[in-house]
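Bit of a strange request maybe. I'm writing a small parser for structure token strings and I need a real example to test against, not something I typed by hand. Could someone generate the tokens for this chain?
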Amino acid sequence: MKSQKLPAIGKRIGFFFHSIRFRFVLWFAVILAIVLAAFSGFVYYNQARDIQGEAQFRLERKMAALEVVLTMTSNGFLLPQGVLQDTDILILVAPDGEVVASRGPIPAQDATLLAQRAQQEHEQHGNPPDGFVSWSQGNLKPKANYLFVTVPIATVTGRAGLIILGSPLDPYGLSGKLIFTLLAGSLLTLLIALAGGFWLADRAMRPVHTITQAARTIGETDLSRRLNMKGKDELGQLANTFDGMLGRLQAAFERQRQFVADASHELRTPLTIVNLEASRVLTSHRSKEDYQNALTVIRSENDFMSALVNDLLTLARMDAGQTVIEKTPVDLSDVAVETVERLTPLSTRNGIRLETGDLPEVHILGDRQYLIQMLSNLVENGIKYTDGIEKCVRIETGKTDGTAWVRVSDTGPGIAPEHIPHLFDRFYRIDKSRTRNADDDGHSKAPNGSGLGLSIVQWIAHVHEGSIKVESQVGVGTTFEARFKATE
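Reply from user aminoacidic:
Good idea to test on real output. This should exercise your parser:
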């Protein structure tokens, strides 16, 4: 059991160190540590400079007092009480460099070394007129960092000696206390920042964990789930975008399932008819007329399936973006005339009058073949559903305020208002019976409809940056109008 838990624990630890949360907190801690180090260094530098300045000021005042009251004799020097403290060092140096007397917590050997150092400092500074020379030294026996000043002093013989006065640079240990305070404060701040950073990172990444879990559980058959996060921050926008993507995917899968179901239904009907007709004439010997009628029906169903398959391939290429549109200057009136010429035999066979209205020259940028297909689908749709006394399908073009338009009107039964919003949906047909009528010769009296023609029309209009709309009145007829941007 333990051997099984160890890999899982190691995997979790590895995931933690590679997580965005850990990297976020780590970078936050590094940046904070750099800021704290820079701030602590700045504070320590300013404090150390202030301590040194204050120590030097104290030494200079003491030295000024000593110059007034101190007198060197052959037997030593006289020093008033209360001028120096116990930690101060005072050394008198004769003109020949010999230490005459010393006072303070310093051995005689160190006093001699300080006398030599004082003479070197004076020589390096060129014996300044005021005589003040200061330096610091930290290798003395008291284990303290001392600041020293030296000035020449006159003796009874007239020759100049040196007086060396030293005092602890930081007698109260303020620098050490400051270093400890800065280190302790910085470490405590880092610890608090790390703990708070992990808490904030975990809270901030919780929506991401929710999105991840939802993405793992959502499958092709379960696209109805939503995150429904109410936040207005970036993660809330991400969740809303994810919900929107799920909605689009769900709609796409539903369209795909409906598309496959409708296509299967459309193909199943003609295949069943073909199979029944073939089986009927093959069961026993038939007359020549029976064979001809069966072959006519089979050909009619084959034509329907061919048209359906071609429409399906067209829509598949459109959805996949494989359709190439070559836009050139096109006259919509020429497209309308060519469409009428192509479909006149069909309208004549079905007893429909196909006529044109006003066809002024109206130029747009478009693909001529696709525009012909668009108008052909609209005219065929009108021929299929036109009935009544007039039995007329009319096509006309025009231009209004820089917009070119083409209209196809019929005198059919019209379309009820509840069907109009769905006309351009794939496989949508008002006639749910899906029957197809034929004449006495076995020819279709109207184009076999599959419910895909208007979807193709809408796609062609949109790919030409145009629009398509429909107006219909029950018992009067229907008008389809496509609009495009006109060119000169």
